[in-house]
Amino acid sequence: MSATSPSTVADAVARASSLADLIRRTAAETPGSPAVVGDGRNVTHGELDQRSSALAAGLVAAGLQPGDRVAYLARNATEYWELLFACAKSGLVVVPLNFRLAGPEVEWVLADAAPAALVVEPSLVSLVPAGAVPGPVLVMGGSYEDFLASAPDGDPHRDGTGDDLFCLMYSSGTTGRPKGVTTTVGAFLWAVDAFGRQFDVSAASVSLVPTPYYHIAAGGWSLIALAAGGRIVQFTEVTPAGMISAIVGHRATHVIMVPTVMQLFISSPEASAADYSSVEWVVYGGSPISESVMVGAQRVFGAELAQSYGLTETIGVTTLLGASDHVVGPGSKLRSAGRAVPGVEVAVVSPADGSVLPAGEVGEVVTRGPNVTRGYWQRPSEATDSYWPGGWFRTGDAGYLDADGYLFLKDRIKDMISSGGENVYPAEVENAIMSHPDVLETAIIGVPSEKWGETPLAVVVPRPGASLDSDAIIAHCRERLAHYKCPTAVEIVAALPRNPSGKVLKRTLREPYWAGRERAIS
Questions:
Q1: For the segment 212-222, what is each residue's pLDDT rounded down to a tens digit?
Q2: CA-CA-CA-CA torsion for 219, 221, 226, 230, nearest 10 degrees?
Q3: 321-363: pLDDT as tens digits
C-alpha cells in the first residue's frame, strides 16, 4: 500500500482467516511501522509479530493444547499484545484479568478460568495463590523475557478460526460472582471489520485509548487499530496532563473518551488551548452528552464526534450515534444511544414474555448478531437465561426505540451500577457487607456522581443492639473488594422497603437521588 492509500480494516479482515493473520499481514507489509507507542516498551509491527511468535512457540513447547487458557494480570503493557497474538497463533484462549481486583477475587477467577499459564507484572505476583496455575507463570521483565529467549524458532501456525473460543473476558455477575464472557475468533474478526470501518481506521491512524485492556472498549478498539496497520498510544496511568501530551505529541487521529473527560477538556484552559488539529474522530461511550458539551467538544477538537453503546457480551458493538447526528435543534437525537451498527439487530421487548414492543414503548433492550457471545464460561443455565427465543440477547437495560430506530436508554432491568466506566454488581458488594457481624441486611444502589457518573451507596440495616459505623463498613468492603466496587457512602436505616412478596424495592431507594434527572442510567 502506498502512503497516499493506507490499508484499512476492511482490507485486513478480507484477507484474514484468523486473528493471527492480522499481525502477520502488517508485519509483512510494514515491518518497521510503529505498533505500540507511549508508556512501556515500544514495538513495531514486525517486532510484535516476531515476539508473539516466540511466545506462541514457547507455550506450545510447554505442552499447552488448543483451547487452553492463558491469563494476563497486569496493567496496560506491550506484553498484552504479544500474548494476544501468541494465543491467536497457537489456538489458545486469552483471559485478561482486572488488575484492580482484591486477592480473593483474583483467586476465584483463576479457579474458574483454570488457566494453563499466566503472564503477570511483578507487583501483582503476590495476588496469585501458590499452585493456582499449573503451567508457566511468566513475570514481566524477568522470566517472561527468559521464556521468549529460549523458545523454539518460528510461528507455530496453530491458529484458532471461526467458532473456536478466543477470549474469556470476566464481568461481575448478578449472582455476586464474576462470569467469563466467551468470544470466538469469528466474532472478533467480524467486530473488528464492522466497527473499524465506521471510523476510517487505517495504517495512518494513531489511536489513543486510555482505559485498561481488560475493558472491551480498550482492547477491542486497539485491536482494530493494530489490524489496520496503525499504532496505539498506550497508557499505564492516565492523567489529564498525560492525555493532552499524548494527543499532541503523538498526533493522535482517533481519541476514545467518556463524557466526563470531554467535559474536563472543554472546561480546562490548558486542555482547550492545545493543538488538536490531528484529531479526526472523538468516540465516547457510557452516557450521552449534553448540547453544551457537544458544542464545546466540536469547538475544541474540531473533529467528528460519535457515541457507541455496547457490552462485553457484544464486543462493545451494538449501536452508534454518528457524526451527522451530533447537531442541535428540533428533533435532535443527542439524548439517544444511536442506531444499530450495520449487521447488528436491536429491539425492545416486554421483560415478561419477550414480545417485541412498538416504537416509543419502554421495555428491555435486546440484540442479536455475529458479534454476540455464545454464552458464559461453565454457566450453561445462566447463558440460557440471557436469551429470548430467536437468539435475542438480553442486555439488562431498559429503553425504547423511536420511529427512526434510535435507541433511548432509560434505566436498568438488572441492577448493575456503572461507576467511572467500571461495572459494579450490587450482589457482589452486598455479599461482602453481609459478612460483617453487625449487619442484618443491606441493599446497594447507584447514586449520581459528578465525577464518576454514579457510585455505589450502601443502605444497611444493623443487627438489633449493634452500633454500625459508616467508615467501618467501607473499610470492611475494601479488605474484600476492589476499591471502585466499594460504597462511597453508607446510609443506616431501620428497615428496607419491600413489596408484598418480600423483594427489596431498590427503585424506591434510588428515587430520591435520581429525582429530576431524565435518565436513571449512566
A1: 999 999 999 99
A2: -140
A3: 999 999 988 889 998 999 999 999 999 999 889 999 999 998 9
Helices and strands of the chain, counted as H and E runs: 16, 25
Domain spans, the chain: 36-160, 417-514
- 473 in Cβ contact with 443 (< 8 Å): no
In tens, the pLDDT along 174-233 reads 446 788 999 999 999 999 999 999 998 999 999 998 889 999 999 999 999 999 999 999
Choose between 503 and 20: higher pLDDT: 20
- Closest residue by Cα to residue 462 from 503, 430, 496, 492: 492
pLDDT at 465 over 70: yes
Q: Collect contacts of 385-390 with beta carbons under 8 A, ≥24 apart.
A: 386/313, 388/349, 388/354, 389/354
Closest CA to 34 of 231, 233, 209: 231
CB atoms within 10 A of CB 220: 26
- Specify the length of the chain in residues: 522
Rounded Cα–Cα distance for residues 428 and 448 (Å): 20
222/234 Cα distance (integer angstroms): 9
70 to each of 9, 48, 169, 274, 392, how far by Cα in Å?
27, 18, 12, 41, 30
**CATH class of domain segment(s) 36-160:** alpha beta
3-state secondary structure 229-283: CCEEEECCCCCHHHHHHHHHHCCCCEEEECHHHHHHHHHCHHHHCCCCCCCCEEE
Mean local confidence (pLDDT), 375-391? 88
Take residue 15 and report the three cell numbers written for it. 484477507
Indicate the class that CATH gives domain 417-514: alpha beta
Q: Which residue in the block uniquely carries the three cell numbers 464481568? A: 171
Cross-strand bridge partners of residue 68: none
Mean pLDDT, rounded, of the chain: 91
**Burial (0-12, 13-18, 19+ Cβ within 10 Å), 312:** buried
